[in-house]
Amino acid sequence: MNFGYVFQRKIIAASIAVSIFSATQSLAQELSREEFDSLSDRVRTLESENANLRNAEGARNVSSSLVGTNAEYSFKVLDHAEMTNTKQLYQLQALSNGMLGSKLTLGGQVTALLNYQDANENSKFGWLMRHPTSNNQIGTSSSEAVIHSANINLTAKLHENITGYVELLYNPEQNFASGSTITGLPRNNVNVRRAYVLWGNLDKSPMYASLGKMDIPFGWNDTVSPFTNSTSWHSFAGLAYGGLFGYANENLHLRAMAIQGGAQFRNANTPVEGTNVPSKLNNFAADANYTFAFESDTTLMLGASYQYGSSYCQKFEDTPATAHSTGATLIPGVTRNTAPQGVRHFNSCDDNVDSLAAYGIYTNSKLVLTAEYATTLDVWPGTANPYIPQFAAEENVSFTLGGRYSSDVGLPQPVDFSVEFSRFNAGASGSPWEKQDQLVLGSSYYLTPGVNLFAELIRVEG
Questions:
Q1: Rounded to two decimals, what is the model's pTM?
Q2: Rounded Cα gap, residues 91 and 87, in angstroms
Q3: Which is more confidently placed, 13 or 201?
């Protein structure tokens, strides 16, 4: 049967060829040689142009499959307010949902701010979303029209189970650069904020792993505010080199991370042979949360975390007695130091100070309610000042309470209204460094999934 079918096709093809040949011969007899050659040239030109168009279309198809964008994905993966330490899980979910159809997905964000700040002490501003130093803000009031931060990121599908991620950050308002203003070159640089290789495919397995520079899985550390991070985030959110392993099914999410020792980029410090040199994987963190699902799209997530080495391990540094001065020009009997004293972050520690966190998040279609608590399990040595000995060293404690409601006010999209209170305790009761409170009232409106307009009223005390 197959033989007959093939033979029949060959006869039909031969018949068509003969018919075309006969028509060409007939056409050649009616046209002059010159007209026939001109017509043939035009046919060849059209064939060439058609081939070029097909090649160009093919190149465009290859290009579109190679490089792409997704505004919603880019906004969420670069957002510093939500999913602060669960980006890997979100990326795997985006891959599973088909949001990342290209080999390379490029994205970016720009956060522009217009703000006014007022303080009751000269050149002392406590707004934690920028470094509140006298190098940046002078007087009792300050106003700005600035770029707070800008990011560029690249997500690469290297294999069906392997994804690469790189994120660049420009953040003049929060860049660590002692003695420089937001217009100084030390603050106006670009650095690699996050970079890691991610293994996982949720369509095949609930397990995943990542290796590189990433957020530490400790606490929730998100905020219901549209922009300002909670005091809990400023106190305990971490960023470090390490390797992370995760497990995520519909309700349960487990993570454990081996963290490079020494002083890391943010909130991680475990001494390595008495130094802060990050030359040994001797720090770690773990987090577990479970989401309970109820009717009407209502969920309750409860979680807890542990971290072996937090950043709160340095002692109060004092110059030796040989550097003290009681010269004649000073007040009689008063000892002065010739070098700065106090706590210096990122310096080495004598021992680790571990920490614990617990959190609960209630959500439905319009309402989000949050509660988070974190504490060190030992005192921070540096909270004891030898020159004010009446205040003993204390544990570091932070908590956050917040709520957000989405309201339909007649616009194409709902408007979010939020309130959040957070506190950071860092000293004994009555000490000048006892605590800092932050209250944020916010509202935001999404013009598109990747464009958010927001306003906040912030009070910081302590």
A1: 0.82
A2: 6
A3: 201
